[in-house]
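Q: Can someone sanity-check these two? First one:
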Amino acid sequence: MSRFTTTWWLPIIIIIDQTTKWLAGRFDLVRINSGVAFGLGQMADSSIIMAVMFLGLVGLVFLYRFKRPYQLGLMLILSGGMSNLIDRYYFSGVRDFLPMMWWHNNLADLAIFCGLVLSVIQVYRVYVLTKKNYV
C-alpha cells in the first residue's frame, strides 16, 4: 500500500464513522461519552483535545516517515482519533452507539483498537522476530 493510498483512507474512515454516528443518532441509539477511555475521566477539560490535536499532527508526520507496514496501523489510529476529536468539538463528548459488555463504542474506537493491534504485530515482526537491535 503506497503512502498516497494510505492517506486516502484517513478521510474515508472519518466520513464512515461520522455517518454511522449520525444514523445512530436518528434512531436514538447514541450515548455521549465525555470521558476518555471506557468512560474514565468524565471531568476532562480542553487539554485533552489539545493533546489529541498535537498527537494527530505528530501522527501525520510519522505516517509519511514510516515504512509501509506501519502506515496502515498509524492511519487507523489517527483517523479514529480525529473522528472522535470532531465529536468532542461539536458535542462535548464522543458519540458511542455500539454496546460492548459494560461500555459503548463506535467505529472510530474500533479503528483505533485495530490500528494498535496492527502496529504491535508489525513491531513484533520487525524487531523481535528479526532480532534487530535499534536501541
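And here is the second, same format, sequence then C-alpha cells:
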Amino acid sequence: MKTFLNFKFQISNLLKSRANGFTLIEIMVAAVIIGIMSGAGVAAYRRLNDRAVVEGAAKKVEQALRETQKRAASGVKPTGCNGTLLAYTITMGGVLGPRRYMIQADCSTTDPSPQTFDLPGETRFPSDKSVRFPVLGRGATAQTIWVQNDSGQVTYEIRVNSAGAISGLGLVAMAPTPTPTLPPLPTNLVPNPGFETGSPASWSTNSSGTSCSYANPNFQWTSSDRHEGSYSVRIYMSLGTGCTAEYRTSTTAALVTAGTSYSLSGWIKTQSVTNSAYLRIGFYNASGSLITSFDSTSQAGTTDWSQVSRTVTAPTGAVRARFHVRLVGRGTAFFDDLRFVEI
C-alpha cells in the first residue's frame, strides 16, 4: 500500500511540472528538431528551384536550335549575307562565355552580323558546342549539348543527330567535365605580324615596275583602319597598272625546314583596287638566293576585311623565308594580322 501511495505522489508531481511548462532541455531538443526539418525543407526547395531554372534555360536553347534549323531549311538569305547562303550555325559557350550562345548565317562571301543570346542567371554551358545546319534541310552536325546550374549539380541534356532530329532528353546525371589538355598553338613565324610595333618594325617598303615613277606609291603605318589590335599598314596608288608596291621583311625573317608544309594567311581590305592585293612568301637557300615564291589568294575592287591564305611546302634547299604584302595597280589596300605556321 505504501509503495502505491509513493508512485501516486510521483505522478502527481510530474503532472504539476507539465502544467508549469517544458524544461529547458525539452525546448532545446524541440528547437534542434525544428531546425533540422526546416533545413531539409529549404534544401528540397532549392533542388526543385534549380531543376526548374535549368529546365527553363534548356528549353530556350532547344527552341534556338529549332529556330536555327528552320532558317536553314527555308534557304532564305538574311540581310547582310553576300554570296550564297550555305548554312546556319548555332554556337554555345567557348569563346562567347559559358552563359552565351549565338546564331550565325554562313555565307560564301560575307556573313551578316550574328544574333547573340544569354542563358538565364545561374545557368551555363559546361563545355563549348556548335551545331551547323546546311541549307534546305540537309541534316546537321551531330552533337550532345548540356545546360547546367552553376554548381554543376543539375544537368539537362539535348541531342541533335546527323539527320537533324532534336531531342530534349531532360535531366541527367553527369560526371564532372575534365579539363582538356590542349595542344600548344603553333608558333607564328611572321615578325611583327599585326604591325603593332615600330613604324612598323621588321618591315620596309619597296616598289617595282615601269609605271612606279608616276604611280607615286604611298605607304602608311596607320591606326585609322585595322582588322584587330591598334595598327595596320596601308598602300595607296593613284595611277598606274604596271607598278607593284609592297611592305616586306628581310630575307632572313623566318627559319624554315625544306619539305615541311606551312600555312600562310592574313587579312586584307581594299578600296577601288584595279588589279590585286595579296600576300607573298619567298623561300631562300643558305646562300641567300631566292629559290621560289608563292602568292596567296588575292582581293580586288572594294572589299571589307577578308582573310586570304595559301598552303605551301618549303622547297628543297630552303632554310629561310621572306614575307610580302603587295598592291598591284591603282587603289588602296590595308593589310593586317599575318600568320605563317607549320602544319
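A (reply): Looked at the second one. The radius of gyration is 34 Å. The chain has two domains: 57-172, 204-342.
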